[in-house]
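To assess whether the prediction recovers the assembly geometry, we first specified each molecular entity separately, as shown.
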Amino acid sequence: MRKDKLASRAGQLYGTVAGLLAAFIAGLVVLEQIGVPQQVLGYLFVAATFVLYAGIGIASRTVHVTDYYVAGRQVPGVFNGMATAADWLSGASFIGLAGTLYMLGFDGLAYLLGWTGGFVLVAVLIAPYLRKFGAFTLPDFLAVRFGGHAARLTGVVVLFACSFTYVVAQLYATGLIASRFLGISFETGVYVGLAIVLVCSLLGGMRSITWTQVAQYLVLIVAFMLPVAILSAQHFGMPLAQFAYGAALEQIAALEQQMLASGLADPDTLVRHLVPGEALDPLNFAALVVCLIVGTASLPHLLMRFLTTSSVRDARRSAGWTLFFVLLLYATVPAYAAFAKLEVYQNVVGASLQALPDWIYTYGRLGLVEICGAAASSADAVRAACAAVPESAGVLRLSDLAIDRDVIVLALPEIAGLPYVIAVLVAAGGLAATLSTANGLLLAIANALGHDVYYRTLDSRAPASRRLLVARLLLLAAAAVAAIVTASRPADILSMVAWAFSLAASGFFPALVLGIWWKRCTAAGAVCGMIAGFGLTLAYLLLTRYGGMGEWYGIQNTSAAIFGVPAGFAVAILVSLVTRAPSRHVQAMVEEIRKPAGKPVMIDGAP
Amino acid sequence: MTFHGKPGTSPLQRRWRRTIGLALVTIAGLAVFALVVPLFVGPLNALRFAGFPLGYYMAAQGSLIAFLALTVWFIRRQERLDRDAGVAEPEPLDAGDELR
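The predicted structure of the complete assembly is given in tokenized form:
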């Protein structure tokens, strides 16, 4: 086997990258001190990270099919863990999640539990076996295990349904961050972000993406941890915000009581931060946790990352590493929510309308903070808006204030009075999170089209060079379509992202688990199970949202997989039992993938 | 076959049965920390842990750390099962100390 030089020297290389990053941040702080304008600092920082990503992408270009699809299967477990974490942590996790915890209080923690717990399932049930199988894509596995085009093409449809809305949401977030911090238009932001994605993936496919994502993880984790650590050191004398925010939680609970007593907060609308059941009832909380856990273990762009490790053992370990790396970010998210809430309860609610902190106006001008129903663009605007509200008495009440959830992470550096460079760092981290996820998703879509539809289904005698050319053209096409859809700013796209988990869970999970763990599962059973689970979930989503159908047992449609996954399992098992058992050859293959040692079932993506 | 003779008890079959048992135990652990612990947030919040109300702490951090510990435990157990049954991959020369 060719030895990947990049893989064997990765530790040294990324140590250097981390050092350069630290030096660069320090350099920018100095530049800010000597009076370089903020806009220039923003451009410098983002441009530097883009050059880094593109440079890695170009340096890891490849002409080998195995490199293009699975990074040569030589990625060490730790680095695959980092890359998978970057793949996993999207704009929603980086920017939106803290805001969700701010809004929903305790109940928002369902997202933390689901998005970390899922990796336990990945390590136990799926990743090592998929790796041993040796496929290039998820539909590839389904096709060989369940012999035929029906399983493959159903897999492609499910993959497309859950990946496309997700990639559009990432590009949407890219456009938002670029327009806020770099002062360029939303559309330009989308196209520039996409250009970087393409430089990273077009030349080297999975190989480039992997090594770019490792760098993107470094950028995003530093960007997420640094501001909150400084804030925590200032206010609680301890830079480890993950341990210091307990004190903030106590103060929040005390302030909630005070606000209720003084009438600043309304007991009907106040979401108490520490109390469960304020935003989601226990049934919906549990359903959401289950759907996110199962969805995590089914998302194709995530699972295909585990095909890149050098061994089954490394695939399993890298699931553990991924959990560790995402945990670093997720354990920090509640600290953001707590510090922001404390700031709002201490210094904003109950303040005189003349004496609001500056950050309110900064984000009010962007339309992200509303007071008394109007954007809080200036002190005069706030006074005018509140004069129209009869019971307002010159003092801001909690119910008068509406904060967009994206503000929590973006505004924290400003709330803490940190240098502008830190705000730019957060923007660069947000871009790293969105671009790395968009990268993985686009590659998953393009590979499904190029490998599964074109090569496997349409032209199975295509030479390697033509397969790679088609794969790259399809990547371009998928990117172009995603960009056009994003630039039209579809209204519903962000809420649809939550659906991706339910769709992936109900479409893939039963077929994957039964395919590995139950030899008796037949092709007809798997295909029927996928169609039934996916169909039921999709129908529930569409009918409850657009069809005016009532919710079953009050389950919100973001947790639709709570119906779809059992339905998928039930149909797959029943149909399997009434159809003829799989051939001896297939059963032997399933036996084989259960043993780590020995040759993979598919070699170079061919059975 | 092996000296165990009767079907269903070859080292490979035994390893697979234990693998299934290990998977079930691990998933049960996952369910406890993801689903059962959050049910008791109210009472747990009355307790203090490192300055946190314990109920909130568990859902925000404690369960997450439990997931990681559970995964590391699972990986070690599974690797031992594979080694004992003789189906583990050969150890690479220059790696393999991660997570150990």
